[in-house]
């Protein structure tokens, strides 16, 4: 299921990019690559094959309000067993072909990961079926359960208005801790259970593989002409890569990719960037987006939501994992997001934005002006 995507930052004149882009939300949506009625007819026959003992009708198809990495369909299916009829909503994620944000992705591995995490009782949408035949929708796709829930709004930021903003402090604190437990619970997944995420052609360890992946993605998204500051950051990361055990990384760890029932985290969604880079990759991503929705927009963080210090402390408490190498991972996160932003601009240009004028680039630029002096070669020792 595609949850809302976070965007933020500030333009050079101080205007909030979050607000400025709110009227251009459609620019960030994955373009429709198939007609909804044709998809409904195709899926009508397909659901009849996977639910052969029921009379099945695809009643409606809709799409999420936001999303940028793959085409996602909400499919309402009426199922009649002969005793009762019910309508159930499923989510269909279609493998991106022409409209490709990520350098590469494995839809089968994403589905397998959902199977693995669901079997462990972790809060993810339950996967139902995987289809490889492109004759149905023009590409492979998988189907998972629809999870009813809500995400904190991001346009404008949840720190400015919306249901979380209007909630009592005690409820906000409960939501934050539930989100942290969901995030940190991933660190307990045994590496052996997710070994299929390994990409040995890119390097030895999970971190080395991810650095190799994002170096290749940067070259791909810039046609080999990456901005000098991004090349400098990549070199800095390569020279100071910490030794860390392979562990699961969600890849897109942010509160906007969680669904809440009341103030309890009910589902963690969007797994296409999952890897073996480990929990610090997720913590740094989480902190980046927390900044985007608060200090980067000159917004005070809502009372009840943990600040940077509290988040790091809770992470260490729940995962028993040191944050010693967090400065390295913050640079890594900013490089990843800068690369994604460049690719996104190639696909859907946005007025006033460029490879060197966007929130991710500016964030990375600030880090490269401060982190190298703090993070010495000696810090790498484990």
TrEMBL record:
Alphabetized UniProt keyword annotations: Transferase
Aminoglycoside phosphotransferase domain residues: 72-310
Gene3D superfamilies, per database record: 3.90.1200.10, Phosphorylase Kinase, domain 1 (3.30.200.20)
Keyword Nucleus part of the UniProt annotation: no
Segments crossing the lipid bilayer: none
Pfam family, one: APH
GO MF: transferase activity
Region described as Disordered: spans on this chain: 1-34
Record keyword Transferase present: yes
Listed name of the protein: Phosphotransferase family protein
């Amino acid at each position: 299921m595609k949850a809302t995507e976070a965007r933020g930052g500030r333009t050079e004149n101080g205007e909030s990019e979050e607000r400025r882009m709110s009227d251009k939300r459609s620019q960030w949506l994955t373009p429709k690559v198939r007609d909804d009625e044709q998809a409904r007819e195709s899926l009508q026959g397909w659901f009849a094959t996977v639910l052969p003992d029921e009379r099945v009708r695809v009643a409606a198809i809709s799409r999420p309000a936001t999303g940028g990495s793959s085409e996602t369909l909400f499919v309402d299916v009426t199922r009649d067993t002969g005793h009762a009829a019910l309508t159930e909503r499923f989510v269909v994620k279609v493998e991106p072909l022409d409209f490709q944000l990520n350098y590469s992705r494995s839809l089968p591995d994403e589905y397998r990961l959902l199977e693995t995490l669901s079997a462990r009782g972790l809060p993810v949408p339950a996967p139902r079926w995987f289809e490889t035949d492109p004759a149905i929708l023009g590409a492979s796709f998988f189907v998972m359960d629809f999870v009813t829930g809500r995400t904190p709004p991001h346009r404008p930021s949840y720190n400015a208005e919306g249901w979380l903003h209007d909630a009592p402090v005690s409820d906000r604190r409960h939501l934050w801790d539930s989100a942290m437990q969901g995030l940190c619970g991933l660190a307990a997944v045994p590496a052996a259970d997710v070994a299929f995420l390994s990409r040995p052609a890119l390097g030895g360890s999970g971190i080395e593989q991810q650095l190799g992946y994002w170096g290749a993605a940067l070259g791909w998204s810039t046609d080999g002409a990456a901005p000098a500051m991004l090349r400098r950051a990549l070199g800095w990361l390569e020279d100071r890569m910490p030794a860390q055990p392979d562990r699961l990384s969600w890849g897109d760890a942010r509160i906007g990719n969680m669904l809440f029932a009341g103030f309890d985290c009910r589902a963690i969604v969007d797994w296409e960037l999952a890897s073996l880079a480990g929990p610090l990759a997720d913590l740094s991503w989480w902190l980046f987006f927390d900044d985007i929705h608060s200090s980067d927009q000159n917004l005070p963080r809502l009372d009840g939501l943990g600040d940077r210090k509290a988040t790091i402390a809770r992470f260490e408490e729940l995962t028993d994992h040191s944050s010693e190498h967090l400065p390295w991972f913050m640079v890594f996160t900013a490089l990843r997001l800068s690369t994604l932003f460049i690719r996104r601009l190639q696909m859907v240009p946005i007025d006033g934005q460029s490879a060197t004028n966007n929130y991710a680039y500016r964030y990375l630029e600030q880090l490269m002006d401060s982190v190298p002096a703090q993070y010495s070669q000696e810090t790498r020792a484990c």
